[in-house]
Amino acid sequence: MSLQLLFVTLCFLSVSGNSLSADVGQTITAQYINELVEEYMANHLSALEAKYQSKFESLDKENALLKSGLISLKSAIEVLNHGDPSDEGDRNDTKMITNRPSLLSDDTRSYRVSTSNVQPQVAFQAVLDHTIGILGDYKTIKFNRIDLSLGNDYNANTGVFTCSVPGLYVFHTNIVNIKGKSLELDFLKNGNLFGRAYIGDEDTGRSESASSTAIVQLAVSDTVWLSTNTNHDSGDLLYPPYCYFSGYLLYPYIV
């Protein structure tokens, strides 16, 4: 019963109570008010119970979904940390890589690349900080100032990079010539050519620059350096400090 009806009832009883004795009127009024209040409270509490019961059921469903998601997340983390035990090929947490393009390898081999450890970091950049004078044939260019060295594989005294981590490497050089001079440099792996950089002898009245990048596969103890060949002018050729030699490990492999 609504509060408005309760109010109307009380007003009616207060008016009609004038024709009754005071004691009888008060007794009837008190009893009726108690009944109305009890009925109202019972209905109100029943409505509240139904309302919050629905909310509790909804929260239970959401909680069940969250628990299911948490279990799935834990399973995914377990697979990432330890591998999927149902996959026979990944029991050692390694991945087989086969059929490498012949451009990137000296022969046809298969490699197992570790995914369980952090990839080793090998990189360097060395700069030529002085003008090089007379260059003979097949002379190593010694980029003598090291700006970056991860792995310490490049030797500034010899100009030679010695591989400590087998894998696929990228090497790059940028050279600037003395005005009007020409020069050709070779990327050599263990003395074998795998890339070349050339800067021409056009008479532009200013120095020119040239860049070259080469990719090569290296095993432990393989060496890489930049060397002149027979195609170069005489006298001062390279202009510092814009000449540099750099390289980095693209990805490692284990034979």
Automatic annotation (TrEMBL):
This protein's record includes keyword Secreted: yes
InterPro entries: C1q_dom, Cerebellin_Synaptic_Org, Tumour_necrosis_fac-like_dom
Keywords from the named record: Secreted, Signal
Pfam families linked to this entry: C1q
GO-annotated cellular components: extracellular region
Superkingdom field: Eukaryota
Signal peptide range: 1-17
Domain C1q, residue spans: 117-255
Record's subcellular location: Secreted
Record's protein name: Complement C1q tumor necrosis factor-related protein 2
Origin species: Mizuhopecten yessoensis
